[in-house]
Amino acid sequence: MKGTMTIKIIIIGIILSLYLFGTEVFGETTMQILQVESLGLPTQSKQFAARKINALKVFNHRLYLGHGDAVVNTGPTDVIYYDFAQSEYKTEFTVDDEAIYRYEVVSGQLVIPGPDATESWDFGNIYVLAEHGWTKERTIPNGIHINDIVAYGPHWYCSTGCFYQFGQETEETYPFGGIFRSADEGKHWQLAYGTPYDEGSVYRVNRLVSFQGKLYGFYYAMLTLTKDQIPVRYHASLGDGYGGGYIVLAPDLFGSRDAIVYDGSHWGLVDLVPEEQVCTISAVVLGEKMVLAVLSGEYLDYMQLRTQRPEQARTRLYYYDGQESKPIDLDYDYLIDIVVKDNRLYLLMVHEQLISIVETEDLCHWTQYGLPGNLKGVRCLEYHDGSFLLGMEDGNIFKTSSLVGQPGQLSPNHEFPSSFHGVAEIPAEGQWYWTALTTWQQWAEPATISGIIRGEHELEVTVSNVSELLVFNPWSNSQNPSGRVSLRINEQNVFNNEAIQTLSWQCKLAKNGKWKAKPVRIQREEYVPEQRVVGKTDIPLNGRGHGSSYTTWKAEVIRQAAQADIALVSPYSVLGDLKPGPITLDDVFRTNQDHVICTFAMSGEEIQTLIEYNFKLAEKERVAISGFTISYSDHEADSQNVIEQISLEAQKKYRVAVSDGLMRYALENFGRSIPHDATQFKTRVVLVHWLEENRKIDQVPQTVFIRSAPPTQDQALSGE
Fold it and tell me: Global pTM?
């Protein structure tokens, strides 16, 4: 099960390689500003966490994109590519992993390392695109996370986060970083190298690089500490924590040795960079040099590193020529991505809050390209046919379309993309560049938007499921000397006049289907989405604990929405508590995972078998129920729990409502796979609709009753 703190660290660790934190770098640099346009939002139909773009890779004149989230668990994950010739996105395959974080070209074939299988962790997956299409190789023993894959000599090598289990009598697993070797392109693997293991850390091998006849592997480790275990001087750099502790990167795992190296005969450790307290290294090869991005420091809170860099974090770029390493002079605050194409190195980086791309052939002379100042959430970079391609947090794929000048001589549109796309279920997600969605036609359902800036005074917006929005004036007076602005919404002309003093327009959809625009003085930088109240609760809704009031209420709502007889809800689907008082749309989305409601039919006798299996698991694994009641004896050893009474008729057929998230782990939760059918309902949507209709929660019936187990013979004799 994926419930223990060790497992949480395991899952979180797989996305560490997405964040490369930079240094202060510099040499001879020139700067040009690029304009960008959106190639679309290919992940629009996915749940929020699955929309972000993790990786871009051009292969066979197609742009393959990686998306999804293996912490939230959004899989299975579609393999989507952009067809340059037809200017459209296509779905080619679906991988049985929670996300796609990387594509690699290995022996001329496109390969996906599987970061987190949706199946059991007995094996890890890779996916290979051959002439006949994609092939899944589920062959890497105990491969929880497959991080990278390369060819070295006649073999393939993959880096992993793995586990080892001592026998069948214990569920305790020991996570280590492994490097596996395959002689038949992924069909079979054997462990070639394993990192140490200690009880306080989770080890991983991340990047693999073949360089000058040797194979290099780069490792890291994480450990969970309480605040008391972290020196007070570092407390200011900590985030909110995770699961009751802080996930901290471990520096200098092997002293001064920074990497694993294999010369074709023997494995060893090597000191590559003259740095202390090294936490992570990411590497690429440029000609005869290996470029190393190094992050070092003490007590670096991994979760906090995703959003900001603490003062004690140090970042440097080095190159290694096979003999020694030297620092690279280039000025930046942190790196987002590193790409090598056609013997050129491209760095996607942030410096003084400006996102830019720098390129070089020799690590001495640099060309720097600035991106629009309001381009936020850039996650990955690719280069193709003279253009840069950018993958975004919100799912947009941007393409650089033209140079728009030098700093100080910029075109009117340099602050924003010339076009963008967006999708949102709530106002907190609904702000893009010079627009903000404020009111939905159907709340909690997806609303979409696209915007285009045409020339120096034309704005065009297309929306669906939206009844009100704000459009902010993207130009200052100096950028638009005429002061004239033309605004169109869904092909309707809503404003065409001088707007020199206008900060924004409040746009509303009238009952006759016509859009109206009213100038208002709301600045984009000061806009804060309103909290929409959808209901209230008179009682505290506790999201944790077996049979919690929140999960039980949720089970009842799901049962009603699916018109089912009973419902079973995973305790992991509720992410927080709700205090008595108003419930906002944001509250519902914040405290609930985004799942599809599914149903299946089963007899009362069969359902009892499922419940008996589930209630012998640890308390935090036991489902909440609606539509029937049970009582059980709670023993000190969970496996001895006994269902004493259940209000189901043994031979009667029941329609059962569940979520697709619960069904994904049916084998672990109920001891068997369960065929089921998806409905058109989503859990968060039906919760919102229930609150809008019923307005308040004043009670939650108890459905699970616990009876104390009789004392064991030993307890009775001891008087306990």
Answer: 0.88
